[in-house]
């Protein structure tokens, strides 16, 4: 089952990357054959590593939730871009490294949150405490009033990202 799922995902990814390369639908015959061969090789080599020990992440509801998560994430990223541009123009920054506790217990959820924070301009995930799953985040402009509530209140720095990570990684 893991081999089949990995092979199908690899083939779909290959087809998406080579779209428009031919005359059979949107691909050439050679692309369809090469993609199938490469997908079988990827499925054989990476099947157990891609899926893991359980099939939890194969659930289509989780993938749909991830796709829905992209909308608030891109909105937060756009808002952060404007904020960083404002800070660069005016020079009003107050950088600090803060500790947040998002109360996530799965490594996938922590990784998704840390990646989301790092991709958002003005913030950078610096470290993760493996025992408590607390994140250390560099923030370009921290309000001293907010600092006293850290690590309990993580919303000023990462909004609803931990809630989405919890839903996706479950």
Explain this structure:
It is a single chain. 59% of the residues lie in helices and 9% in strands. It is mainly alpha-helical. It has two domains: 2-57, no CATH class; 60-169, no CATH class. A three-stranded antiparallel beta sheet has the order 1-3-2. α1 (2-17) packs across α2. The protein is elongated. The two termini are 22 Å apart.
* Number of alpha- plus pi-helical segments: 7
- Whole-angstrom Rg: 20 Å
Quote the average pLDDT: 84
How many strands, what sense, and barrel or not for the largest sheet?
3 strands, antiparallel
Unreliable segments of 5+ consecutive residues: none
- Please state how the strands of the largest beta sheet are arranged side by side: 1-3-2
Per DSSP, what share of the residues sits in E-state strands of 2 or more residues? 5-15%
Counted beta strands: 3
Write the element-wise H/E pattern from the N-terminal end onward.
HHHEHEEHHH
Helix/strand/pairing category: mainly alpha
Q: What is the number of independent domains?
A: 2
How helix-rich are the residues, as a percent range?
A: 55-70%
How far is it from the N-terminal to the C-terminal residue, by CA?
Answer: 22 Å
The coarse overall form would be elongated
């Amino acid at each position: 089952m893991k081999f089949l799922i990995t092979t199908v995902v690899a083939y779909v990814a290959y087809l998406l990357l080579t779209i428009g390369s031919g005359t059979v639908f949107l691909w050439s015959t050679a692309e369809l054959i090469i993609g199938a061969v490469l997908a079988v090789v990827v499925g054989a080599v990476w099947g157990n590593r891609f899926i893991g020990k359980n099939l939890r992440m194969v659930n289509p509801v989780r993938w749909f939730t991830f796709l829905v998560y992209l909308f608030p994430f891109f909105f937060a990223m756009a808002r952060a871009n404007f904020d960083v541009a404002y800070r660069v123009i005016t020079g009003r920054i107050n950088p600090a490294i803060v500790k947040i506790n998002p109360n996530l217990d799965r490594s996938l959820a922590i990784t998704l949150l840390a990646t989301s924070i790092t991709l958002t301009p003005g913030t950078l995930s610096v470290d993760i405490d493996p025992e408590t799953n607390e994140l250390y985040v560099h923030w370009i402009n921290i309000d001293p009033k907010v600092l006293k509530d850290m690590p309990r209140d993580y919303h000023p720095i990462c909004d609803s990202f931990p809630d989405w990570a919890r839903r996706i990684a479950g």
